[in-house]
Each structure stands twice: as C-alpha cells, then as structure tokens.
Amino acid sequence: MSRGLSAVAAIVVPLLVLAVLALVWVGRDVAEPEVGVPAGPVGTALAELPVAPAGTMTGYSRSAFGPAWADVDDNGCSTREDVLARDLTGIVVADDGCRVLSGTLADPYGAGTVDFVRGVDTSAAVQIDHVVALAAAWRTGARDWDAERRERFANDPLELLAVAGAENQAKGDDDAAEWLPVEGACAYAARQVAVKSEWGLWVTPDERDALAAVLTGCPGQELPRR
After folding, report:
1. The model's pTM
2. Where are the chain's structural domains?
3. Ranges for the GmrSD restriction endonucleases C-terminal domain (predicted)?
C-alpha cells in the first residue's frame, strides 16, 4: 500500500468505527428495553409497538380531538352516556333512553365503590378517562392524524373507562411511565398496549419499560378488545 493510501486509511477506518459505535449506542438508547417484555399476547403486542422519544406538544388542544363526547356510532347517545351505561351497574336511565341518571361504579383504579347521581354538583364523582391521555397520544403519533381520525380515537370504547373523578384528575395528561393506578395496574397496562397497538401509536422508552415492568407480574393477562 502506498504511503498516501495508508494515511487515508489511518483516518477513515477509525472514523468508520466511531460511526458504527455511535449508531449502536443510539440504538441502545431507543430500542433496547431495560425490562424484558412478558410472554403471551400482551407481551407480543408490546414488543411490536414502535419505540421513539415523545414528540412535540406544539399545536395541541382538546379541541383537536373534536367536540367532547360526540355520537360517533350514531346510536343517538353521546359517548359519555354509552360508557356510563357500560361501566356502571344498577343504572337508571332517563326517558330519552340515553342519559344515565344514577348507578354504581366499581372504580378500576382503586378508589372503591362510587355512587353516581347525575347533577351539577354530583356528576363529576364519576368521569370518563381516556386511558391513553389525549395529550400523550398527541406526542406519540396523533399529532400527524387528520381531525376525523382524532375524533374517532377520542370516542373509541377501547380507549375509555368510567373512573372515580379524583383518580382521573390525579392522572391528568400523564402516560404510563408517569402514572399508574393504585389497583388494577395489570388491566390498565394491558389496555394501554391494546389502544396503542390498535391505533398505531408509539411508546417512549420509559413507557415501554414501565408497561413491561407491570405486565411481567401479570401472567395470563388478556389483551383487551372492543
């Protein structure tokens, strides 16, 4: 090898090695889990979710997901009433066949039993939680959707649960890495995975590890369906 080629090789080869090492390191930061995914359908679905850092919140507003509780299934009742009717027991329904006037909630997040009575001062005792918070969905893919898709997401029964109002307020816009319920974490984590899988949302590395950590302690946990 000539002296000139040797000099070039002495510069290029180390640079190539450093580039490869840098790619490996970046890949480890994003792709390699700190916690192994569990076996079973939920673990498989979690392993198949794309992993990426959270995106920007630029442009986010609740209105980006359409009017609250639209009647997207055209059954004549708002989504809120549909979820209350599904998740509460012993319900009393108004003459219009839609408005739930009262019922009992077994809170899936650990707040015990909540008596729901419709009224200005009482309705907030039971609220409808977007399992994957709308802001969390925005920063993991929904920002790129059109308005119609976002509205369908915000009213998807798979994405919604009736919960104690205090629990819903405590959760806010947090993702699974930032908030988990006191009870029912296995079912909550599985529903997070189901929603993200159904709608093609990604998870952040921290979300993936948090979900995997929960689900490894839930052998036999089923993947929720609509």
Report:
1. 0.84
2. 1-32, 33-215
3. 80-213
